[in-house]
Amino acid sequence: MAKVDWAEMLPYELAAAIATAPVCYLPLGTLEFHGWHLPLGFDALKAQAICRRCAQITGGVVMPPNFWGIGGGHKGYAGSAIADDDLLPSILRNALREVRRNGFKVAVVLTGHYPGEQVIAVKAASAEAGAPDFSVIALPEHEAFPTETRGDHAAKWETSLGLALFPEQVEMDRLTGDNPLYGIYGQDPRMEARAELGLETVEVIVNTIADRVRSELKRLGVA
Ligand SMILES: [Zn+2]
Questions:
Q1: 127: CATH
Q2: Is this prediction's pTM over 0.85?
């Protein structure tokens, strides 16, 4: 497997990756309570794992995930750490400027955390950073399914993605006790979540993003 994490690369490796495919993936999420069974950094870890799979297909590099997300219904939960709304646009503006300065031509901003505030801010900052020679693709992962709902919170779909991407970090047997579905929005993951469903979903997301990246590289005359 090719090395794809920016933070782990030596300068010559980053230069080679950019020369081969000037594509940078920016995974976004938050620290947020995700049920008793999923890690607190789930959204960013999920986005990072998907971005790594994309980069294995298209080439390019993956930035370290950004855990400062905004909005949503889990502020104040134990284990949540949600930023003020003004922080995220500033982080993205800085990150995309530096990505472009390093010679990337296409950036993919994938948010695994998707309340309205977050998605609106991500799309706006990405649109602002785009230029004729620098294309920014911004999406929450469930946008790969335009005609059905595959986004939820720690329920059927997110749990299936966790079981597919990093099963060793998912503890289904924690969903017991007085309030097993505390903080979970969506269909009961104990009944509905399946690794195979997660794998099938990951494949569609990765292929959708890879297709968009290839067509942007082509449009920019890079590939
Ligand atoms: Zn989530």
A1: 3.40.50.10310
A2: yes
